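User: quick one, fold this
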Amino acid sequence: MNMLFFCCSRVIILPFIYFKKHMSEISLTDATFDGEVIQSKGVVLVDFWAEWCGPCKMVGPVIAQISDEMAGKVKVCTLDVDQYPQKAREYGIMSIPTMMIFKDGKMVDMFVGARTKEDIVGRLNKVIEGK
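Assistant:
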């Protein structure tokens, strides 16, 4: 099954698998955030995003790759700020995408905007290594 997109008068066909939710990603809600992030041991990456956000759509596949490749080392979570605005307000999210890295329930890094996979993985590895 393929999906059709129209862009600049061209048809773009993307395999349906491109849109598959990766099993290792956890979709958070305001109600599940604390249990999945704050009460977690280890490293957690949280991607605050929205469906309408162009840069969020660009970084989404990168987050999915990181989730798959770093499974067991990093818990990767996403939170749709339109559907679940409480935690976004609580953490002062003013622009998206915003990504936060937590270690043992404490936020240790935060960055805003679309980033490369190498940048995000580099930040995660620094936290994992304790640097």
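User: anything notable?
Assistant: The radius of gyration is 15 Å.
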